[in-house]
UniProtKB/TrEMBL annotation:
Protein name: citrate lyase holo-[acyl-carrier protein] synthase
Source organism, top-level taxon: Bacteria
InterPro entries documented for this protein: CitX
UniProt entry keywords in alphabetical sequence: Lyase, Nucleotidyltransferase, Transferase
Organism the protein comes from: Clostridium tanneri
Signal peptide positions (record): none
UniProt-listed Enzyme Commission number(s): 2.7.7.61
Catalyzed reactions per annotation: apo-[citrate lyase ACP] + 2'-(5''-triphospho-alpha-D-ribosyl)-3'-dephospho-CoA = holo-[citrate lyase ACP] + diphosphate
Length: 208
Protein backbone atom coordinates (compact mmCIF):
# COMPACT_ATOMS: atom_id res chain seq x y z
CA UNK A 1 0.00 0.00 0.00
CA UNK A 2 1.33 3.44 -0.90
CA UNK A 3 2.07 5.71 2.03
CA UNK A 4 0.18 8.62 0.52
CA UNK A 5 -3.07 6.67 0.20
CA UNK A 6 -5.19 6.43 3.33
CA UNK A 7 -7.72 3.60 3.36
CA UNK A 8 -10.50 3.05 5.89
CA UNK A 9 -11.81 -0.49 5.52
CA UNK A 10 -15.41 -1.07 6.53
CA UNK A 11 -14.26 -3.60 9.13
CA UNK A 12 -12.12 -0.97 10.85
CA UNK A 13 -14.35 2.09 10.52
CA UNK A 14 -17.75 2.65 8.90
CA UNK A 15 -17.54 4.55 5.63
CA UNK A 16 -19.81 7.43 6.57
CA UNK A 17 -18.18 7.70 10.01
CA UNK A 18 -14.73 7.83 8.41
CA UNK A 19 -15.73 10.73 6.20
CA UNK A 20 -17.54 12.47 9.04
CA UNK A 21 -14.36 12.41 11.09
CA UNK A 22 -12.73 14.43 8.31
CA UNK A 23 -15.67 16.76 7.64
CA UNK A 24 -15.97 19.08 10.61
CA UNK A 25 -15.37 22.81 10.54
CA UNK A 26 -13.40 24.23 7.60
CA UNK A 27 -10.31 25.37 9.51
CA UNK A 28 -10.14 22.28 11.68
CA UNK A 29 -10.56 19.98 8.69
CA UNK A 30 -7.86 21.68 6.65
CA UNK A 31 -5.54 21.46 9.67
CA UNK A 32 -6.19 17.75 10.14
CA UNK A 33 -5.74 16.98 6.45
CA UNK A 34 -2.45 18.91 6.23
CA UNK A 35 -0.98 17.33 9.34
CA UNK A 36 -2.28 13.78 9.23
CA UNK A 37 -2.79 12.78 5.63
CA UNK A 38 -1.96 14.94 2.69
CA UNK A 39 1.26 15.71 0.91
CA UNK A 40 1.77 17.89 -2.15
CA UNK A 41 0.78 16.18 -5.38
CA UNK A 42 1.95 16.75 -8.93
CA UNK A 43 0.05 16.13 -12.19
CA UNK A 44 2.24 13.05 -12.61
CA UNK A 45 1.08 11.74 -9.22
CA UNK A 46 -2.54 12.12 -10.30
CA UNK A 47 -1.95 10.23 -13.56
CA UNK A 48 -0.12 7.46 -11.70
CA UNK A 49 -2.88 7.19 -9.12
CA UNK A 50 -5.49 6.96 -11.87
CA UNK A 51 -3.66 3.99 -13.38
CA UNK A 52 -3.43 2.26 -9.99
CA UNK A 53 -7.11 2.93 -9.31
CA UNK A 54 -8.04 1.16 -12.56
CA UNK A 55 -6.01 -1.85 -11.45
CA UNK A 56 -7.72 -1.89 -8.04
CA UNK A 57 -11.12 -1.62 -9.68
CA UNK A 58 -10.43 -4.59 -11.94
CA UNK A 59 -9.34 -6.64 -8.92
CA UNK A 60 -12.56 -5.80 -7.06
CA UNK A 61 -14.74 -6.69 -10.02
CA UNK A 62 -12.89 -9.96 -10.43
CA UNK A 63 -13.39 -10.79 -6.76
CA UNK A 64 -17.04 -9.81 -6.31
CA UNK A 65 -18.44 -10.25 -9.84
CA UNK A 66 -20.74 -7.29 -9.29
CA UNK A 67 -21.44 -3.74 -10.43
CA UNK A 68 -18.74 -1.28 -9.40
CA UNK A 69 -19.44 2.36 -8.48
CA UNK A 70 -16.68 4.94 -8.08
CA UNK A 71 -17.51 8.39 -6.65
CA UNK A 72 -15.03 11.23 -7.18
CA UNK A 73 -15.29 14.99 -6.72
CA UNK A 74 -14.63 17.11 -9.81
CA UNK A 75 -12.27 19.40 -7.96
CA UNK A 76 -9.74 21.09 -10.29
CA UNK A 77 -5.98 21.38 -10.01
CA UNK A 78 -3.69 19.29 -7.83
CA UNK A 79 -5.04 20.32 -4.40
CA UNK A 80 -8.01 17.98 -4.51
CA UNK A 81 -8.13 17.15 -0.79
CA UNK A 82 -9.83 19.98 1.10
CA UNK A 83 -12.93 20.70 3.17
CA UNK A 84 -15.05 21.29 0.05
CA UNK A 85 -14.18 18.00 -1.67
CA UNK A 86 -14.56 16.05 1.58
CA UNK A 87 -17.87 17.71 2.38
CA UNK A 88 -19.26 17.02 -1.09
CA UNK A 89 -18.13 13.41 -1.01
CA UNK A 90 -19.62 12.92 2.44
CA UNK A 91 -23.07 14.04 1.28
CA UNK A 92 -23.16 12.21 -2.05
CA UNK A 93 -21.70 8.94 -0.74
CA UNK A 94 -24.14 8.89 2.19
CA UNK A 95 -27.00 9.34 -0.27
CA UNK A 96 -25.78 6.53 -2.54
CA UNK A 97 -25.27 4.23 0.44
CA UNK A 98 -28.90 4.89 1.43
CA UNK A 99 -30.15 4.22 -2.11
CA UNK A 100 -28.25 0.92 -2.48
CA UNK A 101 -28.10 -0.16 1.18
CA UNK A 102 -29.60 -3.60 0.48
CA UNK A 103 -27.24 -4.32 -2.42
CA UNK A 104 -23.79 -3.30 -1.16
CA UNK A 105 -21.19 -6.10 -1.20
CA UNK A 106 -18.18 -3.89 -0.52
CA UNK A 107 -17.46 -0.23 0.19
CA UNK A 108 -14.26 1.69 0.78
CA UNK A 109 -13.04 5.27 1.27
CA UNK A 110 -9.60 6.44 0.17
CA UNK A 111 -7.66 9.71 0.22
CA UNK A 112 -5.51 9.79 -2.90
CA UNK A 113 -3.75 12.11 -5.33
CA UNK A 114 -7.06 12.21 -7.24
CA UNK A 115 -8.78 13.45 -4.11
CA UNK A 116 -11.15 11.55 -1.79
CA UNK A 117 -12.73 8.54 -3.47
CA UNK A 118 -15.50 6.16 -2.47
CA UNK A 119 -15.68 2.74 -4.13
CA UNK A 120 -18.58 0.30 -3.85
CA UNK A 121 -19.46 -3.07 -5.35
CA UNK A 122 -23.17 -3.82 -5.67
CA UNK A 123 -25.33 -6.86 -6.19
CA UNK A 124 -27.42 -4.77 -8.58
CA UNK A 125 -27.65 -4.51 -12.36
CA UNK A 126 -25.33 -1.92 -13.85
CA UNK A 127 -28.21 -0.36 -15.81
CA UNK A 128 -30.26 0.25 -12.67
CA UNK A 129 -27.21 1.56 -10.84
CA UNK A 130 -26.37 3.94 -13.69
CA UNK A 131 -29.92 5.28 -13.93
CA UNK A 132 -30.05 5.97 -10.19
CA UNK A 133 -26.63 7.62 -10.05
CA UNK A 134 -27.40 9.81 -13.07
CA UNK A 135 -30.54 10.96 -11.28
CA UNK A 136 -28.35 12.05 -8.37
CA UNK A 137 -25.85 13.77 -10.66
CA UNK A 138 -28.64 15.69 -12.38
CA UNK A 139 -30.98 16.53 -9.49
CA UNK A 140 -28.95 16.90 -6.30
CA UNK A 141 -27.55 20.36 -5.58
CA UNK A 142 -24.05 18.89 -5.38
CA UNK A 143 -24.57 16.35 -8.18
CA UNK A 144 -22.75 18.39 -10.79
CA UNK A 145 -19.69 18.50 -8.54
CA UNK A 146 -19.09 14.74 -8.71
CA UNK A 147 -18.41 11.97 -11.18
CA UNK A 148 -20.22 8.75 -10.32
CA UNK A 149 -18.80 6.09 -12.64
CA UNK A 150 -20.52 2.73 -13.03
CA UNK A 151 -18.79 -0.42 -14.34
CA UNK A 152 -20.33 -3.75 -15.27
CA UNK A 153 -19.05 -7.14 -14.10
CA UNK A 154 -16.65 -7.23 -17.05
CA UNK A 155 -15.06 -3.93 -16.06
CA UNK A 156 -16.68 -1.90 -18.84
CA UNK A 157 -17.69 1.66 -17.98
CA UNK A 158 -21.38 2.25 -18.64
CA UNK A 159 -22.03 5.50 -20.47
CA UNK A 160 -25.11 7.67 -20.45
CA UNK A 161 -25.39 7.25 -24.20
CA UNK A 162 -25.82 3.48 -23.86
CA UNK A 163 -28.94 4.10 -21.77
CA UNK A 164 -30.27 6.83 -24.03
CA UNK A 165 -29.49 9.54 -21.49
CA UNK A 166 -28.23 12.94 -22.65
CA UNK A 167 -24.57 13.71 -22.03
CA UNK A 168 -23.49 15.85 -19.10
CA UNK A 169 -23.39 19.58 -19.58
CA UNK A 170 -20.66 21.87 -18.30
CA UNK A 171 -21.85 23.56 -15.11
CA UNK A 172 -20.32 26.86 -16.21
CA UNK A 173 -21.41 27.24 -19.83
CA UNK A 174 -23.77 24.30 -20.55
CA UNK A 175 -21.63 23.03 -23.43
CA UNK A 176 -20.87 19.28 -23.46
CA UNK A 177 -18.74 18.77 -20.35
CA UNK A 178 -16.15 16.59 -22.09
CA UNK A 179 -15.48 19.31 -24.66
CA UNK A 180 -14.72 21.85 -21.94
CA UNK A 181 -12.47 19.37 -20.11
CA UNK A 182 -10.47 18.52 -23.23
CA UNK A 183 -10.05 22.14 -24.33
CA UNK A 184 -9.48 23.43 -20.77
CA UNK A 185 -12.02 26.10 -21.57
CA UNK A 186 -12.43 27.27 -17.97
CA UNK A 187 -9.78 28.33 -15.49
CA UNK A 188 -9.12 26.55 -12.21
CA UNK A 189 -10.31 29.66 -10.37
CA UNK A 190 -13.65 29.61 -12.21
CA UNK A 191 -14.27 25.97 -11.37
CA UNK A 192 -13.15 26.34 -7.75
CA UNK A 193 -15.45 29.34 -7.30
CA UNK A 194 -18.41 27.38 -8.70
CA UNK A 195 -17.79 24.44 -6.39
CA UNK A 196 -17.26 26.69 -3.37
CA UNK A 197 -20.55 28.46 -4.13
CA UNK A 198 -22.48 25.22 -4.59
CA UNK A 199 -21.10 23.75 -1.39
CA UNK A 200 -21.92 26.93 0.53
CA UNK A 201 -25.46 26.87 -0.86
CA UNK A 202 -25.83 23.28 0.27
CA UNK A 203 -24.51 24.07 3.76
CA UNK A 204 -26.84 27.06 4.07
CA UNK A 205 -29.86 24.97 3.09
CA UNK A 206 -28.83 22.20 5.50
CA UNK A 207 -28.91 24.68 8.38
CA UNK A 208 -32.48 25.80 7.62
Amino acid sequence: MKEDVVIFNEEELGLTEAICKLCTEEDELDKRIDIRYIRKYSPEDILSEREERVYRQQSLIGKYKGTLIVIRVNYPGTNKNNYISFGILKEISALIIAVFKNFILYKNFEITAEGPIVTMVLNESCNNAKNKTVEIEENHLLGRCVDIDVYDENGNSLSRRELGISERKCYLCCSPAQNCVRSRKHSIDEIENFMRLKYQQFCDLSIL
